[in-house]
Design goal:
Number of strands: 0
Shape: elongated
Length: about 90
């Protein structure tokens, strides 16, 4: 009888190791793609609440500020790039 109980425990152990393996795979997937998951949730919330309009406005303001900073600090580079661009037209 003990042999049967040991074989049944070995079957239950193999089943639990399979479950542990699946859990480890799921945890690895979550840790590898955590940023994408959070980004998707945030995008879904923004789309459902129409906050994306505010976010687009903030992004445009940031791009404008960065462009102004770049033009101010790299005037010569901007002038040369604009000259070559106009000459190509």
């Amino acid at each position: 009888m003990e042999k049967k109980s040991s074989s049944s425990t070995s079957k239950s152990n193999s089943g639990s190791s399979s479950k542990n393996s699946n859990n480890n795979d799921i945890l690895k997937m979550i840790t590898n793609y955590f940023g994408a998951i959070i980004g998707g949730v945030i995008a879904l919330i923004l789309a459902c609440t129409s906050l994306y309009r505010v976010v687009i406005g903030i992004v445009l303001v940031c791009i404008g500020a960065w462009f102004g900073y770049y033009c101010q600090h790299y005037k010569e580079n901007v002038k040369n790039k604009l000259r070559t661009f106009v000459d190509k037209l």
